[in-house]
Fold:
Amino acid sequence: MTAMFSMTDVTVCYDNVEAVRNVSLAVEEGQIVTVIGPNGAGKTTLLMAAIGLLASRGRMEFQGNDIGKLAVEDRVERRLCLVPEKRELFADMSVADNLLLGSYSLRDRSGVQKTLDEVYDRFPRLKERQRQAAGTLSGGERQMLALGRALMAKPKLLMLDEPSLGLAPLIVREIFRTIASLRDLGVSILLVEQNARAALETADYGYVLETGEVVQSGPAKDLIHDPRLITAYLGGH
Ligand SMILES: Nc1ncnc2c1ncn2[C@@H]1O[C@H](COP(=O)(O)OP(=O)(O)OP(=O)(O)O)[C@@H](O)[C@H]1O
Structure:
C-alpha cells in the first residue's frame, strides 16, 4: 500500500543544530499515526516541517506528490492541516467567526454552511456558544474549537500537536474519542503527543522520537505493551 503521507530521511535544523534527524514515517489513508516522545524530542519541529513552516532536507510526499518544497499555503490547499499546540484561536472573535476562518483556504465556498452545520453537530457546545468570544471558552472547549476550525478546511491529513496539553483527564478522554471519530469520517491523522498512553490507545501505528530520531516504531497495540516504553513513557504499569 502506498502511504498517503510519508517522510523519508527528513532532517530539520535550527541554525546548525539538527532538531530532527533522518526521520522516516508514513501515514496510510484512514489511519491515526502517533509520534510520542519526551519534551524537546523534536515532535513540534516535525509537524512544523510537515506543514512547511520550517525548511527540511529529505523527502516528503503527500498523495504521491513531492511536497517538500511547497509553501505552506500550497500544502494547505492540498488539504494538509495543522492544529498547533497553542491552538492559535482569535480570542476576541466569536466561536462562529473562528470556525469560518478555518474555511478560508477553500476555493469552493458552496459547502461552507453545510460543513459548519456538521461541525456544530459534532460539537454541540460550540453551537451553543457560537456567538461567544473564543477567549471565554474553557480549555477543553478551546481545543474543540481548534479541531472544529481545522475540520472547516476539510482536511485529508490532520496534524495535531499535543491536543491533550493542559486539559483535565476527563476532557482528554473526550478529545481522544473525537479524534478517533474523525478517522471514522475518513480523515487521516498524524498525532504528536506527550500523553503516550492516550495516544497509543487511539492510534493505529506509533513512532517513538527521542532527541530528534525515531528509536522505535510499530503497531500501537504492540507499543503499548512494550516493556521499555512502559517504563519510560507509560507510567510503569
Ligand atoms: N525556534 C527554535 N530555535 C532553536 N531551537 C529550537 C527552536 N524550537 C525548538 N528548538 C529545539 O529543538 C528541539 C526540539 O524541540 P521541539 O519543540 O520540536 O520538541 P517537542 O518534542 O515538540 O517538545 P515539546 O513537547 O516540549 O514541545 C529542542 O531541543 C528545542 O530546544
